[in-house]
Amino acid sequence: MTAADAHAARPAMRLDVVSIFPDYLAPLELSLIGKAREDGLLDVRVHDLRDFTHDRHRTVDDTPYGGGAGMVMKPQPWSEALDHVLALDNPSGARPHLVVPGPGGQPFTQALARQLALEPWLAFACGRYEGIDERVYDHAREDLGLEVSVVSLGDYVLNGGEVAVLAMVEAIGRLVPGVIGNAESLVEESHEDGLLEYPIYTKPSSWNGREVPPVLLSGNHGAIAAWRHEQRLARTAARRPDLLHASHAGPHGDLEISAATPGDVPELAVLRRACAANEVVETGALDTPALRESLDDVRAGLETGQTWVARIAGRLVGAVRTTRASGSSGTGDSWVAERLCVAPDLQGGDVGPRLLEHAESTAPDGIRTLVLRTVAPDADELKRYKKAGYRLVDAPSDVPGTITLARRRR
Ligand code: JD8
Hints:
Elements: H1 3-8, E1 13-19, H2 31-38, E2 42-48, E3 61-62, E4 72-73, H3 75-87, E5 97-107, H4 110-116, E6 121-125, H5 135-143, E7 147-152, H6 162-173, H7 184-187, E8 206-207, E9 210-211, H8 221-239, E10 246-248, E11 255-259, H9 265-283, H10 289-292, H11 295-301, E12 306-312, E13 315-325, E14 334-342, H12 351-361, E15 369-375, H13 379-387, E16 391-392, E17 402-408
Parallel strand pairs: 1-2, 1-6, 5-6, 5-7, 14-15
Antiparallel strand pairs: 3-4, 8-9, 10-11, 11-12, 12-13, 13-14, 15-17, 16-17
Helix pairs in contact: 3-5
Ligand JD8 binds next to strand 5.
């Protein structure tokens, strides 16, 4: 039984598209979307707007009121086209969600694709020329009772909505259960969990003098998962640092945690030095590494593991570093959070817990043990760590002046 058979029972998702260039949508007869239509998972219907004109020239546009360049699409053909779509095979009088591509619309994202993929019926209105008479949007909302969303494919200008609809129908259609054979592959895709994809390779293992990374030939799935996770983090930090901004709606609503970049080094060094000074006052441990750490040391530290910084209104207020440590026999690897530091004026608040929570959340699949290596916490901090499930590891800590706590990953 194919994935499609397993889902054939559920009613097909209906997608209507209205355009003056219906042939533009022909690619939706191909590949996965085409197969999903044959399998009855998607019911895609394309309509020619000119079929809803009544003059010899099948006119759909006219000059803009108020003057200006270009032409505007007339409301009447759109009204009749929408009436037709709503009347077609719709005994229950259901109402589609009308999606109108436009350069000024809300950004089309994977999150929006996921949302729209849950809907039973979408209708897409492909504009051309300068766009569609504004009264069509009001008519659809107020007279036809449709939810209307203006959605943009991206910050560049196209000549019409067709290309956008091609992309949207593919991005939405492939999320419909049964359309993609192994839904598993959906999980680790770019933009699915906010990280870009890891590099991929296939045979031969040696090509043009270039080797496939040995870890991928090792059969060690834990190590492969770790390598892939780190590749995803590194690529995202390099190509799309904006995606690494995970905002936390806490009391510090504007607390932003992001992957540290070389630009953060000066502030990070100052923060660590400030926190170390505090520790020395409390513990007298003058041999705290952070006291002797140079800017180059801090910069170099960004190359290994993953350092996260927390900012409030642009001010760097905290940081933490994560690395993977190979576990002793049977415990499997552990995910180590260390160098957790919070600006002295914010210690005891939620910056620390948020950073630790974020560090834990970046642990790759397969990690069972979360480790926290920190300088001797005060009683309150220790209580909070214990409340979070951490227990003191009575083994000597790898870094002098620090203690190690650990907990099982839930
Ligand atoms: C729909 C008409 C052309 C747009 C005058 C060029 C989406 N990301 C996107 N860029 N452009 C569009 C888009 C463009 C469209 C229409 C979508 C209908 N045009 C117009 C305004 C300026 N011409 C889009 N999604």
